[in-house]
Amino acid sequence: MNFSVDSMLNGLAEQGMCFTSSEQRTTGEYDSADAEWNYKDVPHLKEAHENAEAINGALSKSSASSIFIQKVGPIRIPLSVCVYSPSPNSISYFTSIGPFVLVISSSWKTLLTSTTVTTRYHLGSTRFFKPFHFFIHKILEKNYKVLMNVDVPMRVRRGELRSRGYIFLNDESGYGFLETINLQVLGVKVPTTLPDFKVEMEISDLPQGTTLLGENDSRGIRIIREENQFRVFPRICLHAGALLDNAKIQDNCVRCPWHGKRIKPIFDFNLDGQTKSYESSGIKMTIEKQVLRFEGLLQ
């Protein structure tokens, strides 16, 4: 059973706590499901956010209990945090540090093509510590902006993919905390209505380093050339939809910037002047007379 934020605040008030509140709001071109996914997405906290990391204690579909390590400059502050979903369009957190208790609620609502997320911070303490509330709310406001600088682009990226016909497989069943830790799940369904990716170019026209071809989804590729060694990577991670154009290369794999998933090359080859044809992940590559041809759709 999940209790409402008001129920918690009333119970704490009976114990002598007084509360002050503040509110932050963001609006972006994405769906409500993208906000829900983002708030329940456990792995991205470690990979995408520099100032926070969660050490998980218990996860289920509707709740998560973790030790958060919040970084404030050189200081690392451990916080026991409980997160739960009281309704399909909201999420709540609570934690305490010293004499202060913090209860947070975030809710989201979609209107046409944009979604507004409203986050309310309820800060409680005894009256003796209430003068400190103003400064803590300022810190919370700053931290919110830091988090949203990362989270909102993730949601907008998924919104862009939706506008092209992509489907996210948990939209109907709902998103849960526990399900997000499996990075091997392909959570993005490529629309069958998309035209195949087709490109042809002279190998001599490919510069050293990175070249991006096609669209920044399943209709495009990222080629990395080092002398006559070529590696071809996708431009989208089909686990959750992340853009891989600037993702780091580690141990011959692209590392997804959202979750750290390692993605092997679609093709990895040297030139020898012969005619060759390869197929991988739905894309066909042909090398003939120093001409590269790609055709297909990443799957």
Placed side by side, the strands forming the largest sheet appear as: 1-7-6-5-4-3-2
Quick one: CATH class of the largest domain?
Answer: Alpha Beta
Residue runs with pLDDT of under 50 for 5 or more positions? none
Question: Mean pLDDT, rounded to whole units?
Answer: 92
What is the architecture of the largest domain at the second tier of CATH? 2-Layer Sandwich
Name the shape in a single word. Answer: elongated
- Elements, N to C (H/E): HEHHEEEEEEHEEEEEEEEEEEEE
Task: Please summarize the sheet with the most strands.
Answer: 7 strands, antiparallel
Task: Describe the protein.
- The longest helix is centred in the middle third of the chain and has 31 residues.
- With 299 residues, the chain is α+β, with helices and mostly antiparallel strands.
- The protein is elongated and about 80 Å long.
- The chain is 18% helix and 44% strand.
Can you give me a brief rundown of this structure?
The protein has 299 residues and is of the alpha+beta class. 18% of the residues lie in helices and 44% in strands. β14 (248-250) and β15 (253-255) form a beta hairpin.
What key phrases describe this protein's structure?
299 residues; alpha+beta; Alpha-D-Glucose-1,6-Bisphosphate, Chain A, domain 4; Rieske Iron-sulfur Protein; 2 domains; 7-stranded antiparallel sheet; 4-stranded antiparallel sheet; 4 helices; 20 strands
